[in-house]
Amino acid sequence: MTLGIHEFLMVSGLLFAIGFVGLLIRRNALILFMCLELMLNAVNLALVAFSRFTETMGGNLFVFFIITVAAAEVAVGLAILVALFRKRRSVYVQELGALKN
Amino acid sequence: MVDFLFYLFSLTTLLAAGTVILTRNPINAAMLLILTFVGTGALFVLLGAYFLAAVQLAVYAGAVIVLFLFIVMLLDVETARSGKPNYPGLVAGIGVGALLVAGALVLYKRGDYFTLATLRESVPVGASTRSFGVELFTTYMLPVQLAGVLLLIAMLGVIHIGKRTRDSSGEEASHRQ
Asked: Which A residues, 66 through 95, put their C-beta within 8 Å of a C-beta on chain B?
C-alpha cells in the first residue's frame, strides 16, 4: 500500500487530540504550555501534508511563520509564568484564580 | 520501506505525546517533548520538507526545549503534588478527546474524499532552501517583515516582564485582594 494524505491527517488529528486532552486534564501551567506546543505541531504536520499532496508552496511557508510565532509565544508565556511564580509561589492554575468573579 | 518508517515515526510521536501529558515530572515531560518534536521532524522529512525539518529541530527541539528546561530548573516546582484529581477537567478531557479521536478516525475512513496523489506520485515542493528563499522574499515579503516586528515586540515584552521591579521583589506581594 502507498501512503496517502489521510494517514498523515490522522496522525495530525490524534496529536491534536492528545494536546487538547492534556490542556484539559493537567493543572501545571508548564505542562499546559507543552500541550499548546503539541497542538501547534499537529497543525504544522497537517499543513505540510496538504502542501506536499497538493504540490503548492503555501503550506510550507505558513508552517515557517507558525514556528516563528510559536517561539515568540513560548518566550512571552514563560516570562509571564516566571513573573507570576515570583508573586504567587505557584504554577498550578487552580491557585491562580485572582481574576475570578 | 517508507511505509514502515511512517508507522515507526508516527507511533513514536504519538506515544511520546501521550506520555508528555500523563507524566508527573516536568523534566520527563520536556524530554518526551523532544522525542515528539524529533518524530514530527522525521515525518516532515518523509513529506519532503527538508528545510522545515531542520527548522523544526533547531527551533523546537533546540530553543524551545532549552527554554522549558531552564524554566523548570528556575522554578523548582515540587514534582508530585497529589491533590484530588481535576474531575471536571477529566470528564471534559475524556469527552472531547473521544470526539476528536472519532473525528480523526472518520477522516481516515473517508480518506478517498481527498482525490489527491499518493506520496510516491506527488512531487515535493518545499524540498530546497532556495525555493523557500525565493518565495519568502518575493511573494511573502510583508509577512516576513511582520514576523520580524513580532519577534522584536516579543523580545521587548519579555525584557519588560522579566525585569524585577521594586514592589514585586518582596516575599509578600503588594497586590492582594
From this structure: 67-76, 78-83, 85-88, 91-92, 94
Q: Do A86 and B168 touch (CB under 8 A)?
A: yes
Asked if pLDDT for residue B32 goes beyond 90, the answer is: yes
Query: Which residues of chain A are modeled with pLDDT < 50?
Result: none
Q: Which domain holds residue A26?
A: 5-95
Asked if A25 and B93 come within 8 Å (Cβ–Cβ), the reply is yes
Question: Distance between CA A12 and CA A17 in Å, rounded?
Answer: 9
Which tens digit of pLDDT belongs to each residue from B94-142? 898 899 888 888 878 776 666 666 776 777 776 778 888 888 899 899 9
Name the residue among B59, B139, B22, B8 with its Cα closest to residue A57. B139
Mean pLDDT computed over B35-54: 92
CB-CB under 8 Å, A48 with B52: yes
Asked whether residue A101 is domain-assigned, the answer is: no
Please report whether residue A100 resides in a domain.
no
A101 and chain B in contact, CB less than 8 A: no
Q: For the whole model, what pTM was predicted?
A: 0.87
Report whether B16 contacts B32 (CB < 8 A): yes
Looking at the partner chain, which of B55, B96, B175 has a beta carbon nearest the beta carbon of A20? B96
A78–B119: do the CB atoms touch at under 8 Å?
no
The three grid cell numbers given for residue B14, joined into one nine-digit string: 504519538
CATH number at residue A32: 1.10.287.3510
Dihedral angle computed from the Cα positions of residues A20, A26, A30 and A34, in that order, rounded to the nearest 10 degrees: -30
ipTM value for the complex:
0.91
pLDDT of residue A4: 79
